[in-house]
Amino acid sequence: MDNQKLSRMDPRAVKATSVISTDETNGPHVAHALRITAASSNPKMFTLPWEKPLSQWPKDYLANLPRGISRHVVRFVHVGDDVYAMKEITRTVAEREYELLRRLQKLELPTVTPIAVVTGRHTPEDQELEAILVTRHLKFSLPYRALFARNLRADTAERLIDALAVLMVRLHLVGFYWGDVSLSNVLFLRDADSFAAFLVDAETGDLHPNLTDGQREYDIDLARTNIIGELMDLNSGNLLPADVDEVAVGDRLVERYRSLWGALTDVDSFNPNEMWKIEQRVNKLNDLGFDVDELEMKTATDGNRVLVRPRVVDAGYASRKLLRLTGLDVQENQARRLLNDLDAYRASTWRQGEDIEIVATDWMREVFEPTVRMIPPEYRSQIEPAQFFHEILTDRWYLAEKAGHDIPMGDAVESYIENVLPKYRLDEAAMKDINDEAESGVIDDEESYGEYNPEDDPDAAVWAS
């Protein structure tokens, strides 16, 4: 990345360390020397069978988790107490993607966490092997195909699209051009009644100080096309509900993206006696889950209006508030639900005049922690505590409405564990089908995933707009 481009980039991203090997910075690349460049100090990394192709690693090392469709061989691997995702790709691509993910992490964006790049791999017969990019498995997350293999609400496709639209906007706000937007390149976490989307594949991406409208439109158009195709593929496998219109869902992404982008970036015009509307604008952004750190305000040329635009906008308004009060680090909609329950607890105990920090400590000890301790051990790797708590509250409300009276929390938990929680399990047959399908998408062809350069792409002419 050239110095001029770096000088105009967010300082947090600039400070991310680089692992790209060049003769000038790291000396000549030694082809036969195994090299692990890691952001983790896990010593068990050195004990893995790097001398074998990833597809031939012994099952004892592997974690049986659903994999998304990828052009490359991908495996989930136990490394001590951690689970890492390993992707076998060329050294150049691995190092570049690692660096991009590091920069995006510094910008506090929802991506998988880069752990290491492993290069210089050879078999005992001295056959050269591709590099491996190592990322941390995003606990509780699932690829979209695994979600559709379960009993989900009919509007699941729309909720996934809404999450993807939020992710795209957040990435575009910091200048990240994706270049290959699709459901396959995202992992999803449940977030109360919605989903949160995390970038998992940044091979074709690039980070700029800011994006042109043409770059954003290219991503939007590609996303719509890919999503329609992916949903049609689901439909051909009888995984998509019959009432889902694939084209309408693709159009929804465009609509949701434009609406959110406008809310975050448009300039509002106020009369000097309407300054209260500034607070209204900030509250609207807070309701969308975004914090406003700065507002750019200036007087219009006619002197009769004030122009207001958010300058620094970041996601996580509710989650940061909950983290400050309780130490719980959860998704945005989960945080909203937990904060609402905290407010209800505060009112029911007649403590509105007491410091919220003290009340939050008691709510954690008396309400939240006793509830999540009831998660059965076999499900603790299947559902987040905050999501479990949210779903208990929802189920309790339905039970109370049906019974005509309040339901004790303990009874609601028992009912939920017996009747709802089993739906979280993927049976072995479904898991095998998902991973077999993921494996069928692997293309062992270096040209298919060589370093992406928009200048070489004939379709990238739209960038000029």
From TrEMBL:
<feature type="compositionally biased region" description="Acidic residues">
    <location>
        <begin position="436"/>
        <end position="459"/>
    </location>
</feature>
<dbReference type="Pfam" id="PF06293">
    <property type="entry name" value="Kdo"/>
</dbReference>
<dbReference type="InterPro" id="IPR025111">
    <property type="entry name" value="DUF4032"/>
</dbReference>
<protein>
    <submittedName>
        <fullName>DUF4032 domain-containing protein</fullName>
    </submittedName>
</protein>
<feature type="domain" description="DUF4032">
    <location>
        <begin position="259"/>
        <end position="421"/>
    </location>
</feature>
<feature type="region of interest" description="Disordered">
    <location>
        <begin position="436"/>
        <end position="465"/>
    </location>
</feature>
<dbReference type="Pfam" id="PF13224">
    <property type="entry name" value="DUF4032"/>
</dbReference>
<dbReference type="InterPro" id="IPR011009">
    <property type="entry name" value="Kinase-like_dom_sf"/>
</dbReference>
